[in-house]
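#structure-requests
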Amino acid sequence: MDRCRDKNAVSPGPIDTGILGHGMTEEAAARFKAERVADNPMRRFGTPEEIAVAAAFLAFDATYTTGAEL
């Protein structure tokens, strides 16, 4: 019997990792980034640190959490 059938997940929106817009013109990259921010309820990019905190929470602190999507 699989006791961990319901998995937890981290599903972030756009994250500013420095690669966004890579291979695009400066204008196209700016437009792409502005569109992502406009579509995001937070109206900003997330950071890799924010995703790391969410992953660490699920890995170590969420001992009685199952089927959660952050």
